[in-house]
Amino acid sequence: MKVLLVEDDPKVASHIANGLLGEGHECITVGDGTSGYQQASSNDLDAVILDVMLPELDGFSVLEKLREEGNTTPVLLLSAKSQVEDKVKGLRTGANDYLTKPFAFEELLARVEGLAGRNKESEDKTLIKVGDLTLDLVNRKVLRGDQEIDLQSKEFQLLECLLRHKGKVVTRSMLLEQVWNYHFDPQTNVIDVHISRLRQKVDKAFNVPLIETVRGTGYRIADGLA
């Protein structure tokens, strides 16, 4: 990926940039909103990591200007503010995702790679295939081999989220946001219940399980399945 990082805290910026470079990605780093806007406007980017509190132009203003000009590059907003109102404002301004500080780099990486990957997918792509599993987005059908699997709405959304991040860990907070639209942890076992039901339907009767638990972090669909 080619990523633009707009972050005015040198320690945070260094941590993120070094992590991205270590994963083999290219990272352009700037420390103020004006420079961020200029770089985002003049570069062909896969994603932008944009802090909210910035000198000169804040992150919301940068994002608003980009979207007004038709720039559709995926943007992940970073903020020390955890209030729901700030997250809603960011998403309504045009952010694709929102991450509250402090955060684990692994989660930031998974979110950015997910955004970049979705942006590269063809808009008319209607099937997602992993191994012998096929997810039909138009007809809302799931097949494993020749067997159709009946999923409830949330189970379908949960499986779609996992498949779109194939080979990468999907954290619990990502699932809560993308499947249930919760921008906070309601402290319930809703994810565990739905993962259990999903496994009963897509894994139990088959030789190769698809859904992996990454202890203490989340879940993953294994990459490289035959």
TrEMBL record:
Key words, A-Z: DNA-binding, Phosphoprotein, Transcription, Transcription regulation, Two-component regulatory system
SMART domains cross-referenced by the UniProt entry: REC, Trans_reg_C
SUPFAM superfamilies listed in its UniProt record: CheY-like (SSF52172)
Domain of life: Bacteria
A molecular function (GO) term: phosphorelay response regulator activity
PROSITE patterns linked to this entry: OMPR_PHOB, RESPONSE_REGULATORY
Positions of post-translational 4-aspartylphosphate modification: D51
Keyword rRNA-binding listed: no
Pfam families assigned to the protein according to its UniProt record, in alphabetical order: Response_reg, Trans_reg_C
Name of this protein: XRE family transcriptional regulator
Organism ancestry: Bacteria, Pseudomonadati, Pseudomonadota, Gammaproteobacteria, Alteromonadales
